[in-house]
Amino acid sequence: MAAVIVQHERLLVVSKQAAPDVFYLPGGKPEPGEQPLEALTRELAEELGVRPLEPRLLGDVEAPAALEGVPMRMTVFHARIDRTPQPAAELARLRWITGHEPGLHLAPAVRHHVLPALRHRGLIGTPEAN
């Protein structure tokens, strides 16, 4: 499960302590018996100390996992959040991006699927907005 959180035409991405220079969508794997929105709510609370507001299913994204390179499928929800996020648990950093930042290493799912979809919908800023 992953969350697309956009504020001021920027997407929230996070990195993990194991790979602090690679950025992903916040979220994670469901525990046994956990429903998708339950998993997303738990992961966002653990990782960022936030609660998703009005989550809407965007769809499934298939792409290679950023570090392992193996095929990955993630269910993506678009949501607002109830407070300012703070990295916790296994997270190293968070950033708000347009995807045009030089030298930014994004997971393939974010770079090739999520950002183009958000640009197409007019939700993410342009390079001039940086």
From TrEMBL:
Does the record's keyword annotation contain Hydrolase? yes
> Is Protein transport tagged as a keyword?
no
Using the record's annotation, list all stretches that form the Nudix hydrolase domain: 1-119
InterPro entries listed in its UniProt record:
NUDIX_hydrolase-like_dom_sf, NUDIX_hydrolase_CS, NUDIX_hydrolase_dom
Superkingdom: Bacteria
- Write down the PANTHER family for this protein, in alphabetical order: 8-OXO-DGTP DIPHOSPHATASE-RELATED, GDP-MANNOSE MANNOSYL HYDROLASE
What protein am I looking at?
Answer: NUDIX domain-containing protein
Q: Which organism is it from?
A: Nonomuraea aridisoli
